[in-house]
Design a protein that fits this description.
One of its GO terms (cellular component) is cytoplasm. The chain is an all-alpha fold. Helix content is 36%, strand content 0%.
Length: 74
């Protein structure tokens, strides 16, 4: 996220970038395998909700934790 922030500021010097860190459900559930509790979407559902609500404009996440299909509208 820091790299993306720096690149955005380099390319668009007049914008303000604020990093908002999320501790997602996927990060919090450590005692069970992901497949048992919802799969990779556990890492992204809260980020997607924040984007839909307009709380954040973009989300940067590890590709390995992304579901294979993005929700409609993202």
């Amino acid at each position: 996220a820091e790299h993306i922030s720096a690149e955005l500021q380099r390319l668009y010097p007049n914008i303000t970038v604020e990093l908002v860190h999320f501790n997602t459900k996927g990060d919090r559930i450590l005692e069970k395998p992901l497949a048992q509790v919802g799969g990779k979407g556990l890492f992204t559902a809260e980020l997607e909700e924040a984007m839909h609500k307009g709380d954040i404009d973009i989300a940067v996440h590890s590709l390995k934790d992304m579901p294979t299909e993005l929700p409609e509208g993202l």
